[in-house]
Amino acid sequence: MTSTSADLDSDALLETARIVAEAVPADALDGVRASLEYLHYADRAVRPDVLRDVAPCDLSMTEAENIVYQLAIEGILDDDHLNVEALRSAFVGARLLTAQTEPPENTIVATIPYDDPALDPGMFEPLHGNLLNLIRSADDDLVLMSPFLSERAYERLRPALHTATDNGASITLITRSLTYGETEYNRGFARAVHDDARLAPHTTTYEYIDDETWTTFHAKIVIADGQCAYLGTANLTHTGLGDNLELGVIFRDNTASRITALVENLRQSEFFHEVTASSDSFRRS
């Protein structure tokens, strides 16, 4: 007694679908399935060379062998019997697999010092321009995480930040050295954001610092809508965006969601402090 597709192990059906999808173009799947059924009902041998003769597409001998032998191994089709339900289920699975879109491409980006003749600025995509495009693309949430900030970098980013908030995005700014330390470096950027009427209502600022051990962070991250994320060496400073040798990746695959999850987990950390700005200082909420 032959098995039905319901009796077959799901892994067996999936493996059969995968083998078929790798061998047969999407527009020929129905024809190849019909060819296999024809071989059975016409009482012809189900062999790789015969399948190649009747199939409506070019199959290599290896591809034909993979299909025929897989169907026989799983008890779906051979010279003696045909499990129509299982065969059709395998080809439906193959169609679903071939319909899957290619994963989005990630982009390596860099800041290349123009005064170093040994380095070609065309080696990688420009970090600055791609980062601006990433920021502009945010419709819901934009995360800017950088241990160092500069007011000159804010001037470079401001038009893109305006586009993001005009789109409806809320901004999470994560940095350090706002409520402690002597440097004004990060404070200039954060104050400029909070003084900007188009950004301030949509921006929440945080520090990440352990006040006892001074454990903090050195990651540089920009995330748009949890779907696209920059991770690299460049701080949101004018030197990081335009002068230093910096390298990073803009992720558009599921890596972006993993980076987003890390940032969301930070919100539960005791080291994560919300900060508000006044006219002359910053304080923790």
From TrEMBL:
<dbReference type="Pfam" id="PF13091">
    <property type="entry name" value="PLDc_2"/>
</dbReference>
<feature type="domain" description="PLD phosphodiesterase">
    <location>
        <begin position="213"/>
        <end position="240"/>
    </location>
</feature>
<dbReference type="InterPro" id="IPR025202">
    <property type="entry name" value="PLD-like_dom"/>
</dbReference>
<protein>
    <submittedName>
        <fullName>PLD-like domain-containing protein</fullName>
    </submittedName>
</protein>
<dbReference type="GO" id="GO:0003824">
    <property type="term" value="F:catalytic activity"/>
</dbReference>
<dbReference type="InterPro" id="IPR001736">
    <property type="entry name" value="PLipase_D/transphosphatidylase"/>
</dbReference>
